[in-house]
Write a structure and sequence with these properties.
Order of helices and strands of chain A: HHHHHHHEEHHHHHHH
Strand content of chain A: under 5%
Strand order of the largest sheet of chain B: 1-4
CATH class of one domain in chain A: Mainly Alpha
Helix content of chain A: over 70%
Strand content of chain B: under 5%
Number of strands of chain A: 2
Number of helices of chain B: 16
CATH topology of one domain in chain A: ABC transporter involved in vitamin B12 uptake, BtuC
Shape of chain B: globular
Distance between the termini of chain A: 56 Å
Strand order of the largest sheet of chain A: 1-2
Largest sheet of chain A: 2 strands, antiparallel
Number of domains of chain B: 2
Radius of gyration of chain A: 22 Å
Structural class of chain A: mainly alpha
Shape of chain A: globular
Largest interface: A-B, 49 and 44 residues
Oligomer: heterodimer
Radius of gyration of chain B: 23 Å
Helix content of chain B: over 70%
Number of helices of chain A: 14
């Protein structure tokens, strides 16, 4: 392990140098060119690749790759949670053109239901812990699915002509309603949810031994199965085609015979279900089911969607991956300011690419 | 006799001018708010009502600054909480702990506000729409992480209390703080209406409707966006300063996403383009449960229902009155007129029979 202070200085030098190079080249060379925006975006791309490459090099030089891979493996459950939450946010953004602030609360609702089911089932004889957890998870997903469906059918659909900021406000009101409703339905105390397993698995790569908690393996398996199913549905089914059509223009899609009502309702329901899985794993790996427990996850999900791009599912997943990577490596550089570091990096990246790393610019009619 | 009549007529004209003047409503409103203080000193009003009124005033100042961004500039920002927190901590640390005099503290706070406003303004030139909202949310999270970690300045998780506030070496009473807040509130309303009616406000409106069209009419996007963000941050920091002057306590984790969203909700629910609408919205979100609901026994027994009630209110208002609750009041007299006409028509029909 190398010198951390030196690495911090080197990274600052790299970032500062790249910003300086960008401004110098833009001011001195591109200023009088006709195709300035085009050249500028190409310059930004090249500099980003160079910068990220050299930062990765410095990080690897300072803390050997085994350490970083090991830390990342321990954090894979966070990655799964963030991927599920981000996909839910992006799905709703695509069909309803709004950021759903109630995503976390819908998820918490499902997790509370799941935890209650798990506790109720503990009286049944001859049922193993993992079966109970699976049944609880299923019940939680189902209830969040129904909740999402209900929210769209009863509220969002009727406010179709509300502006997107107005819709944000509706979801914000829903947060308050659910926040008041959860203690009434499930009691005021947080509920503890057991993990699937508290063991760790050993992985050997060459001569190196790495460990991964078995709970994380369960999370990865379930997350990837669900996301693969969802992406297959988006790619190959009629519903997926409808989602893509609605995303590009709801009015035109409905004129072309796409039943946008069903599409939107299903998107809300599926987003609720994805959130419930995320909240379930968040609660069962270390913390408890609490009313406000999903708020930081939700903020990170918005960040991931902005970083990757709200317009593409793949991009936002890569955003989620990057954020998990940053937040697992950041504590090595500085213990106190890790959140500040992560958000500052995201801010810089988004300033360089305003539509997200993988966003495409859409032409707008004046 | 004739002279007196003309004199009266002149007076009437002047009175009419005064009443029609845009400041008149604000000043009368401020005076009414001062009456609440007098009633409290006479022991006629509970402390909850006074707290509700003060919080409504403080948050209205923040919301007024915010409405310049959202209602006029069309720029959604979720970074309000961080800036309000910044105001409270600058006041709490420099004035409360280091015992700086008032004016340098205010200058420092507004200086910081202007710098932050400039930074956010420059960011807003590059990032737009929903992306800007999320990025300002990120900035607020950075500020919040800073507040929590840097406990020498903010008190960290134990919070920063603010006790011995003095002006010119005289300790200030709660009543004086109330009067100060009311005066600042009225001044903020006057400043807002002046900005709205000035070329700046018109330029912001033009930018909201279409960036490109505004630019082609010669409106500098950079100048007005920076200006809008600076005004909004100064109002937010001012709100923070008044908050710690009255509440006397500020707690770092309190300045979170929920606070920014509540300010946003207040502006949307009340009506983003009307000053009294914004105040109405702030009262519904913050003041209603303190002043009214906490006195109704049904809600006192079920405190969870207050949150549900507030949430349901926001949802219903946004669904059925997208222009804000103030639209309901503004259009109600037209509706009343229509109703009276209909009533008259029906009376005529009853008296004279149906028209052929």
């Amino acid at each position: 392990m190398g010198d951390v202070n030196l690495a911090v200085k080197e990274i600052f030098a790299i970032v500062g140098g790249i910003i300086l190079v960008y401004f110098l080249v833009d001011l001195l060379v591109f200023r009088k060119q006709l195709k300035r925006p085009l050249y500028r975006s190409r310059l930004i791309n090249v500099l980003l690749v160079l910068g990220i490459g050299s930062v990765i090099y410095v990080t690897l030089k300072t803390f050997t790759w085994q350490l970083i891979v090991q830390i990342f493996l321990l954090n894979t459950v966070d990655l799964c949670i963030l991927m599920l939450a981000t996909t839910g946010v992006v799905l709703i953004f695509k069909t309803s053109v709004t950021t759903n602030f109630a995503q976390g609360m819908m998820a918490t609702f499902g997790a509370f239901f799941a935890a209650t089911v798990v506790i109720r089932l503990s009286g049944v004889a001859g049922m193993s812990l993992s079966t109970r957890l699976f049944l609880g998870l299923l019940a939680g997903v189902l209830i969040s699915f129904l909740l999402g469906l209900f929210i769209d059918v009863a509220i969002i659909r009727r406010g179709r002509y509300v502006t997107s900021v107005g819709k944000q406000m509706i979801t914000m009101g829903l947060v308050m309603v659910l926040m008041g409703l959860i203690p009434v339905l499930f009691g005021t105390n947080p509920i503890t949810l057991p993990a699937f397993s508290y063991d760790v698995e050993l992985i050997t790569i060459g001569e190196n031994f790495l460990v991964i908690p078995t709970q994380n393996l369960y999370a990865i398996a379930i997350t990837f199965a669900v996301l693969a199913l969802l992406f297959a549905a988006l790619r190959f089914t009629k519903w997926g085609l409808g989602v893509r059509a609605t995303a590009s223009s709801e009015i035109v899609a409905s004129m072309m015979g796409v039943n946008t009502r069903v599409i939107t309702a299903m998107s809300w329901a599926i987003a609720g279900g994805l959130g419930a899985i995320a909240a379930f794993f968040f609660a069962s790996s270390g913390t408890q089911v609490q009313v406000a427990s999903m708020v930081p996850v939700q903020v990170n999900a918005f960040m991931a969607a902005v970083l990757g791009s709200f317009a593409s599912f793949g991009g936002s997943l890569i955003g989620a991956f990057l954020i998990t990577l940053f937040s697992s490596v950041a504590p090595f550089f500085n213990d106190t300011w890790q959140n500040v570091i992560v958000y500052a990096i995201i801010l810089l990246l988004v300033l360089a690419k305003p539509l997200g790393l993988f966003g495409k610019k859409t032409a707008k009619k004046v | 006799m004739l002279k007196l009549r003309t004199l009266l007529r002149e007076w009437g004209k002047n009175l009419n001018l005064i009443i029609k003047h845009p400041y008149f409503g604000f000043v009368v409103f401020g005076a009414l708010l001062l009456v609440v203080l007098l009633l409290r000193m006479g022991g006629l009003v509970q402390i909850g009502v006074v707290n509700a009124v003060v919080l409504t005033m403080i948050y209205s100042i923040i919301a007024l600054g915010f409405s310049l961004l959202l209602g006029f500039g069309g720029l959604a920002s979720l970074g309000t909480a961080g800036l309000v927190g910044l105001g409270t901590f600058v006041m709490g640390y420099f004035s409360g702990i280091l015992n700086w005099p008032l004016l340098p503290t205010l200058a420092l706070a507004f200086g910081i506000a202007i710098v932050v406003g400039l930074i956010v303004g420059f960011i807003s030139l590059r990032i737009e729409g929903m992306y800007l909202a999320i990025i300002t949310l990120g900035l607020a999270e950075i500020l919040r992480a800073f507040f929590i970690s840097y406990d020498k300045f903010t008190g960290g998780f134990s919070g920063r209390s603010f006790r011995n506030f003095t002006i010119f070496n005289q300790p200030v009473s709660t009543e004086a703080v109330y009067v100060t807040i009311t005066v600042v509130f009225v001044l903020a309303m006057i400043a807002t209406i002046n900005i709205i009616k000035s070329p700046t406000g018109r330029a912001l409106l033009a930018m909201k409707n279409s960036d490109s069209a505004a630019q082609s009419l010669g409106i500098s996007l950079m100048k007005y966006r920076l200006l809008a963000f600076i005004i909004s941050t100064v109002f937010a920091v001012l709100g923070g300063i008044l908050y710690i002057m009255y509440i006397k306590f500020s707690y770092a984790p309190q300045w979170n996403l929920a606070f920014s969203l509540e300010i946003l909700a207040a502006v949307i629910v009340g009506g983003a383009q009307s000053i009294f609408g914004i105040i109405l919205g702030v009262f519904l979100i913050y003041g209603l449960n303190l002043a009214v609901l906490n006195n109704i026994p049904f809600f006192v027994q079920n405190p969870a229902l207050i949150v549900i009630f507030n949430g349901a209110l926001i949802v219903l208002v946004v669904m059925f009155y997208p222009g804000g609750l103030i639209r309901l009041i503004q259009t109600s007299h037209f509706k009343l007129k229509l109703f009276l006409q209909k009533l008259k028509h029906r009376m005529k029909v009853r008296r004279y029979g149906e028209d052929d």
